[in-house]
Design brief:
alpha/beta; Rossmann fold; four-stranded mixed sheet; three-stranded antiparallel sheet; 6 helices
Length: 189
Amino acid sequence: MVGLGNPGPQYIRTRHNAGFAVLALLAERHGVGFRRLGRGVPGESARLRLGEADVLLLRPLTFMNLSGDAVGPVCRREGLGPQQLLLVYDDMDLPLGSLRLRPDGGAGGHRGVASVQAMLGASGLARVRVGIGRPPVGVDAAEHVLGSVAPQDRPTWEEALGRAADAVEAVCTLGLELAMVRFNRPGVM
């Protein structure tokens, strides 16, 4: 599981760090902590067991646009192919608080996803997309993704992060197809 985000305390509560937040919830639920990868790989990881699956949680400690610089070396070291990855990240094309699981797809303008795809030479990767909504009129997209969720929207956001963690667990225990049926239902956020 690869959660995309930006390193540093100034980014912790931003929309762009949805992937980091979901992996942090999973680590907390399962009583594991993240450790630096070392050996020149800019990232941190935690290991846990979900059902029958041994799961590696990876948070690249590069900036978002260079996420592949951490994912590529870890995949090579662990002997993982693109089909064994699940990306978790923010998506402006989805309303705030909504989720969408997909077996593959393009980057959709998300530079972190594009970086991982380029490093692995794979155009399609399974993913859990966490909706952050479009910026209001007059607000730059970069400002929007790097901003915090408004206080009135925080309950919706926190609930979405929890459901995204549930979705990741479902992918590991039920498989992607059944997790998609459960979490991609129309009208369910």
